[in-house]
Amino acid sequence: MATLPRPGRRRALTAAAVALALLGLVLWCVQPGAPAPPRGRVPLATGVPTGVYARYGELLKADLARDLPGVDLRLLRSEGSIDNLRQLASGRAAFTIATADAVADYRARREPGADRLRACARLYDDYMQLVVPRGAEVRSVRDLRGLRVGVGADSSGVQLITRRLLAAAGLDFDRDIVPVRVGIDRMPDMLEHGELDAFFWSGGLPTQAVQQLAQRYPVKLVQLGDLIPALHRQGERTRYYRAAVMPADAYPLVQNGQAVKTIAVANLLVTTDREDAALTFGITRTVIRSRDAIGHEVHAAQNVDLRTAVFTDPLPLHQGARDYYVSVKE
User: Fold this and answer.
1) In this structure, what DSSP letter does residue 317 have?
2) C-alpha span between 283 and 71 (Å, rounded)
3) For every residue of 103-140, which 3-state class applies, written as one string?
4) Facing residues of 317 across strands?
5) 263 and 122 in contact (C-beta within 8 Å)?
6) Which end of the chain is more exposed for a tag (fewer CB within 10 A), N or C?
7) What pLDDT, in 10s, does the model give residues 187-218?
8) Whole-prediction pTM value?
């Protein structure tokens, strides 16, 4: 078989690359229900650097670069769910991740832009984690009285849940504990160095910062299952919490083969009704398709599922996301 000279081979490879790019655009356009491919910078508010939101955002950015080459996803740091929603409502972010309870609270308080929030997908569940030194005499939230407790930053979903858990345990947030308002980027080191007696964290399993702490300092997880009835008695806004179990292998160095009862709450991928339908279609598609790839690094993401992604209570689906789910059912 004849071999092309080097300049010819180079031209042939370039032509092939162009053809593949054009084929991708054609496939996008002919997919049922698919609008034109989107372009431009898209800011996504995530979380603190050592949290699951931030890692999920990094991996999603890489997958979007392949699926939507015209989109430049920019990751924004935040303090957590409530801060994320504020960045979204202000227009600083176009998409974000937030827990369902934080979204419900934001809407109930009629925060700016609350009526414009829309969902793309239900993602994975966050698990509430109460971490203490292994030798601590803490067996329930009630035992935190008088202790220095990391409660999450003031604009975090962690603090929202923590306040409700403390109330369910009969403790006052400001009087019965010493609340330390910092995030997962600081709490593990503070616990290790004796500056905290305990900390709360709400995140996917496993959370890297907790995992790394366990490798250098002996800790244990305190069960929260005994607070479920009292938590649900607080009213409508607590219906987003469900009884859950952290499996024994979530943190092997911590759990000694024992599962831990806790509460869980769903995470949602959120945008606003101002966002372009084509872009929302494409991002929703990538989120669903990337489950397995992202799940290798963020284990919680393995729970993203086409069958459950549409259950985004308390938010309605964005039209672009709805178009995607309709297209894959046809």
Assistant:
1) B
2) 10
3) HHHHHHCCCCCHHHEEEEEEEEEEEEEEEEECCCCCCC
4) 119
5) no
6) N
7) 999 999 999 999 999 998 988 899 999 999 99
8) 0.85
